[in-house]
Amino acid sequence: MMRAAFAFLAAGLSLMAGGNPARADYPVAPDVVVFCEPTLRHAITDLAALWWQDTGVPVRVFTSPTWALLEQVSHRARSDLVIGEGEATAANAIGRHLVKPETVRPLWRNELVVAALASAEPPHLAALAGKAPIAIPDPATDVAGAEGRKALEALGLWDAASASSISVIDTADASYLLAQGKVRLALLYATDVAADPSLAIADRLAPASYAPIVYWIAETHHAVSPNTEKFLAFLHEAKAQERLAADGLEARP
């Protein structure tokens, strides 16, 4: 993945060098390179488009689970910003001297939902639990699965739902099975549903029933883009916040 990322960046820099002479004044590439969680790809890509309209500066988005992102940063893959999930991973990034501690801050909160196909009348989880296949990420390996289990246990539906569930690696696999009609419902993030117009929210899991799913952002120690801090500031502008809300994220103070 790192090799592909470098190849992609090299291609982008080559195009800029030949197609936009105005950027020759930059001592390094003006692009902002963002590493983020896979479920944030759609939201960050939308923000990148807004930023491009305002500045003409590209944002390059690369996704992997947070632990994998940090490994890439540790091997000095080109990255200006990291958007990760969970306080423990933020502490890990600071402890390994991968990010600048003073730049680490909570950014957005995601929500767990039960999704169905938008083209059908959305069934309710309580009515289908134990009666129809439901895609649920593996609680042993995935945050959505682990926290989703807590929420379903709080509702008294875990035993019934898990009895007919199809266990998957993550919400991307759950979303795929749902879109293909292999399951009637899927446990997803709100961002997964916002990214796919073929899906709709059938039920929202009570936020108090599971631990908050919060993403943090930080500048890496080897950030090189002269626009890194400007893009960080842009994330807090009103139009960026509106776009994020539409993409399923709640801004944190």
What's this, in brief?
This protein has helices at 2-19, 41-55, 66-74, 87-95, 125-128, 143-155, 158-163, 171-179, 190-194, 228-234, 238-246, and strands at 32-36, 59-63, 81-85, 105-110, 112-117, 134-137, 165-168, 185-189, 199-204, 213-219, 250-251. By secondary structure, it is α/β, with parallel strands linked by helices.
General description of the model:
- The chain is an alpha/beta fold and 253 residues long.
- It has two domains: 2-109 and 212-251, Periplasmic binding protein-like II (D-Maltodextrin-Binding Protein, domain 2), CATH 3.40.190; 112-204, D-Maltodextrin-Binding Protein, domain 2.
- Helix content is 41%, strand content 22%.
- The protein contains eleven helices and eleven strands.
- It has helices at 2-19, 41-55, 66-74, 87-95, 125-128, 143-155, 158-163, 171-179, 190-194, 228-234, 238-246; strands spanning 32-36, 59-63, 81-85, 105-110, 112-117, 134-137, 165-168, 185-189, 199-204, 213-219, 250-251.
- Strands 2-1-3-10-4-11 form a six-stranded mixed beta sheet, sandwiched between helices. A five-stranded mixed beta sheet has the order 7-6-8-5-9, sandwiched between helices.
- The longest helix has 18 residues, at 2-19.
- It starts with a helix and ends with a strand.
